[in-house]
Structures are given as structure tokens and as C-alpha cells.
Amino acid sequence: MPGIGPKTATRLVYWLLRSKPGTAEGLAAALVDVVKRVRECPVCCNYSFDEGPCAICASVSRDGTVIIVVEHPQDIASFERSGEYRGKYAVLHGAISPLDGVGPDALRIRPLLERLRDASVKEVVLATDPDVEGDATALYLARLLQGIPVKVTRLAHGISVGTEIEYADAVSLARALENRRTL
Question: Which CATH number describes the domain made up of 40-154?
Fold first, then answer.
């Protein structure tokens, strides 16, 4: 499984072997249940247990004028943890990566475009990863959205809060200079 290395996998196996009878069966049933019950929200393409729109898309307290576009469903959790964003989301389920054979058609771009048909959305924030694939995806989307009357912005990139400049890499320093703002 992604993110689980040999040491963690070994710990999990030994934990499972020491567990009470039925633990493995319960865990297996829970995994099967998740795969059967989780659906893709028809609006934002996030994962949800709901049949229709997910809780975020259905919420009237969320700001429907701003949509943050992310690569993966788990990216939403990061924004939600910040407590700073109260808008809605669009999940692409990947990024453009020609070397991996992933083109724009493999991404969930069409649902985003459908949401932009009505004039209620005022801003689309491109929050793809700050890497080659994320930049390519953001550039592609920015060009695609040029004919639509919506403000297109990109998350700022640069030095992380708490990082000492001497330890920052060259790309982060260059992005920080590029994205500087007036005080």
C-alpha cells in the first residue's frame, strides 16, 4: 500500500497476528464496505458516502463564488484543517503528466467546466502541487478558462513559514521572490 514501508507493514502484520480473533475479518469487512459505499460527488468529484452532492457541495453556508481546484481528494482535508477557506472545491484526481501517459482527458475537468456555466462562480483558485506536473496542469487550466468570465488565481509558492532561508532550496527561493508582495 502506498505510504506503508516494510517496517510499518511488518508492525501491522505482527499487530494483526496478536489481535483478538475476528479482528482480521472485521478489518477486511470494513475495507470492503468502504470500497462499496464511497462514491464520487457528482459536483466536485471528491469522495463521499452521500448519494448526491457531498456535504461541502450541499452546504448553503459555504461560499459558492470561489472554487479551489486540487489534484487529489486528500488535498481538501489540508485546506479544511487550516480553517481559513469556506468556499467549495473541484478535484481533478491527478495532474497532467505526459511521461506517465496522463493527459487532460484523464482528469475531472469537465465537471469543473459545467459548474462555471452559470455566473455564480467568481474565482477559480488553482491549487495544484508546486511541481512540474502541477504547474503544467495549472497552466493548461488557466488557458482553458481564459474565455470564461471568472478570475483565475494560483496559490502562492515559496518559502514555508518557519523555514530558515539558508536551508531553503533554490526553487523555493526563486518562487518566493517571484511571488513577493508589497507590505
Answer: 3.40.1360.10
